[in-house]
Design goal:
Blueprint: E1 8-9, E2 22-26, E3 30-35, E4 44-47, H1 48-60
Antiparallel strand pairs: 1-2, 2-3, 3-4
Protein name: Toxin-antitoxin system, toxin component
Pfam families: DUF397
Length: about 70
């Protein structure tokens, strides 16, 4: 049985058009991510610890565009 996912967007997503965002849903051991413009498409899921490390690196400015 698939769990019911409760999707949410960042409060920072209101800037601009507000449609270039991702949504996340928290599961017991994973975090699911999907495109807010195409919610019916497949979502990606990552181990919660890995997703948290990714968000921490983003907020710290440790990631650069290539």
């Amino acid at each position: 049985m698939n769990p019911v996912l409760h999707w949410r967007k960042s409060t920072y997503s209101d800037g601009g058009a507000g449609d270039t965002c991702v949504e996340i849903a928290e599961l017991p051991l994973r975090t699911a991510v999907r495109d807010s413009k195409l919610p019916a498409r497949a979502a990606l899921s990552f181990p919660t610890a890995s997703f948290s490390a990714f968000v921490t690196a983003l907020n710290a400015g440790d990631l650069q565009r290539g």
